UniProtKB/TrEMBL annotation:
Keyword terms: Dioxygenase, Oxidoreductase
Keyword DNA repair: no
PANTHER family tied to this protein: PHYTANOYL-COA DIOXYGENASE (PTHR20883:SF49), PHYTANOYL-COA DIOXYGENASE DOMAIN CONTAINING 1 (PTHR20883)
InterPro entries for this protein: Phytyl_CoA_dOase-like (IPR008775)
GO molecular function: dioxygenase activity
Pfam family, one: PhyH
Keyword NADP: no
Protein name: Phytanoyl-CoA dioxygenase family protein
Organism of origin: Flavobacterium macrobrachii
Length: 275
């Protein structure tokens, strides 16, 4: 088992300073891309550790060409922090959690869950969607950190955003799939929201809110596009009555024991940063 180098442990505790302009940008557009959140040593170290953990956990047996659109989009593994104490150090990083808290302008954040999203070489698009369709959460004080584990050029299918699209209600009721890609794309085409498609340099990450629409292109390279994500919510987030079967599943899986109308405070939803 690898051990976390002291230099990385110390780096993950260092605060990343946001300026008011960046906070304002996030509040307006509900996404932001930030340079140098992680250094090269940290990215390369966790690329190795997370890849090993994904290989242990991955049960996918179906050939790529035989999968659904969702299945072709990525290999998806959840809550690696519960399986691997080294990965947990990244998920529990105060450096990233503080960024999430500062962008949302809340007094602290707790973990909803983490997930590895590995898009295979030849993997398909990730259709347009809004994450919060899946979440039984009372408010939109949620943010996902999307952390590439390598430089991610356009050919690998980096995350794309429709800036400011959190104000659109149409399409929120759709789960990820062919229908969401078609309907949301049609809706966004007639709006003035900017469609942001940019590569990610090593160490750059993005953060986006639960209701902003986003997608990713296909990975037309032969290499795996490796991404780790951390989903944060306001530390005082209330569990709401679920509105669809996916929200019932998420309640049972990611907020076990939480009660509707009360703060989500289960053993797997720890506070990761508090002012």
């Amino acid at each position: 088992m690898q051990t976390l180098p002291k230099s990385i442990t110390e780096f993950l505790e260092l605060p990343y300073s946001l300026n008011q302009e960046q906070i304002n940008f996030y509040q307006k557009n509900r996404f932001i891309k930030l340079k140098n959140v992680l250094n090269t040593e940290t990215v390369q170290f966790f690329n190795t550790v997370i890849t090993e953990q994904v290989n242990v956990m991955n049960q996918e047996q179906t050939a790529l060409e035989e999968r659904t659109t969702y299945g072709k989009a990525f290999l998806q593994l959840f809550n690696l922090w519960l399986e691997n104490s080294i990965v947990k150090e990244l998920i529990f990083s105060k450096r990233i959690a503080k960024i999430a808290s500062d962008l949302m302008q809340v007094n602290g954040v707790r973990l909803y869950h983490d997930q590895a999203l590995f898009k295979e070489g030849g993997g398909g698009i990730t259709p347009w969607h809004a994450d919060q369709y899946y979440w039984p959460l009372e408010t939109d004080k949620t943010v996902t950190a999307w952390i590439p584990l390598q430089a991610t050029p356009l050919e690998m299918g980096p995350l794309e955003f429709s800036a400011g699209s959190h104000t659109i209600v149409e399409g929120r009721e759709l789960e990820i799939g062919d229908e969401s890609e078609e309907i949301i794309q049609k809706k966004l085409r007639v709006t003035d929201f900017k469609h942001v498609i940019e590569p990610f340099d090593i160490g750059k990450i993005s953060l986006h809110s639960g209701w902003v629409f986003h997608r990713a292109g296909a990975n037309i390279t032969n290499d795996m596009r490796k991404v780790m994500t951390i989903i944060y919510m306001d530390k005082d987030m209330i569990l709401k009555n679920p509105e669809n079967k996916n929200q019932i599943h998420d309640w049972e899986t990611w907020c076990p024991g939480a009660k509707v109308g009360e703060i989500i405070n289960s053993p797997i939803n720890p506070i990761l940063y508090s002012k």
